[in-house]
């Protein structure tokens, strides 16, 4: 947190001991903290003043059953931490706060501060800090160890604000992550001020055990689950089961849950709140063997998938079995992780429609879902994505949205993610979701697309406009489908969350570049210039016909038309909304930066960015080569055949060059993706199944290409083994056919035969090359 941020928390990692009547920062005034809290679950709120200890004392006087009703775990604070030995106090238990941000403080006991932090996490309610600048209030105080909150704004600030990461990221990016991968991600999130984060790993074990409890067998349950690369859509009720192998095993489910324990524990350690999965209602067909009277309806068909893999059974929330399973799912997680959260992710109609649009029916669905959550955890908050109101807007008119949301009778018991705020905000026409708390989210990336892209104007101006116009906006978040590059736009929004005014992007980009490349050298001026050029062009898209990250056409199945300049988000956008020559200048600036600073070649951030920029530059050029080829093929010139042959070879040579560049950095590697997938298997069959999952998601996305190329990647190895053969088939076909004899079905069949055969291969090109050498060679060529 920078010193100019809205808030300065003297808490986690900032150990302090201050007298109650002494300001922690010289010159700052002291005012009591105000807390808006419920006295009974779902009851009216009251505003109480003082430290959290004082507020809890007042709440106990108002409601003697307060802790029991809210399931609040209040730490014992009547035993001082000084029982530790003097030697312990002199070492790890004492830490002195420096004067880096907020001034000088005496020492305090670290475990007392940790206890205070845990104390604060257990207390529901919204603390309010009056306007500053220069105003502090004591949040907690026990045994000479205090936590203060200071406000340098000119307006009152209410906590908490929220940030989160989207559901499907767990399949597009993190499907095969290990604990080491998650450690880095959680550090990344915490360092950027995220305080609410989805912890969705391992849900299959929780649901399996809940279904076992009502009498179902593993033989009935396990075939319902989808493979790791597709499990997000299984949880969201879009697909069921697996294709391409044996399916998931009990061993894998157990291993994922053990990983989730580490993830949740680290989230809490870092001061963030995990969002855990709730039971949404999606169940195997076989549930009706043990509950024959249960009300189960088949969901709608999704994205052209065969019936056996879609139309997922949905257990009605009005059925008593729904509440029973909800209680089991929530209680099992509380038992495994502790009382670490009150926020639960629950989406029932992601890209599928309810069985009826009748308003009473929609209200009853959400009412009983909400009641099941509150019965399982009286403090529960239902977090849902608002994507359905945009994606299925033909169904979700204003009346139906209002009816569905009205079932949650206490507004603060729901938290809605306005999932695509930067391009397709829904909060205005839904009147801020009819008063429900909501989060302004940047989606930005569909399917893990890798093009350089951003909307920095929308990401800085629009959130502040929303903050000024909507009383129920409570925070900002990231909901990208895949986390693949473009890190600056994510950092920008997360920093914007701490500023009351739109960030000056020129200054921000300069500071960001200094941070990204600084080390034992001075950042060359060429890098500042290059990033400022991209700030004004590549990352400043204002043409919202293309409203998300694009991809290069070489990732798409070849065709004689319809590839260049595509807009929207699916079929995959390929439009370039800036002058492509800008990237030529950017590339030269990046290259020239190494002349005076040779150590850049060993800088990981520079290497990544140089590979990424080169990938985009060559991908843009590929479109020109492709267009020239199609023009020659359609022409009737005498040298038509020679031109087709020449341009076909040029196209294939360019693919080889792109593959070579990408092989210089492991972040652009098919081998790394497949290796991480196979590592989760404990038998040859399970390793092969996970590899099939990994291959299928980034290519056909379905047993027979139902969402083909949606999650394609510009990766070394994928270009040489998949894209190049497809384009070879295409140019070979063009050489054999003229415009009159061209048969699209014949070509599609040739391509699909290869694509299906690639799914079951187990050969992955590997090899790492020097970026400096490769770029010099390609430049010379």
UniProtKB/TrEMBL annotation:
Q: Which residues form the Alpha-N-acetylglucosaminidase C-terminal domain?
A: 508-763
User: Could you tell me the keywords of this UniProt record?
Assistant: Signal
Q: Identify the residues that the record assigns to the Alpha-N-acetylglucosaminidase tim-barrel domain, covering every copy.
A: 167-499
Instruction: Please state the span of the N-terminal signal peptide per the UniProt entry.
Output: 1-20
Q: Which InterPro entries match?
A: GH, NAGLU, NAGLU_C, NAGLU_tim-barrel
Matches recorded under Pfam families: NAGLU, NAGLU_C
Presence of keyword Signal: yes
Write down what this protein is called.
Tim-barrel domain-containing protein
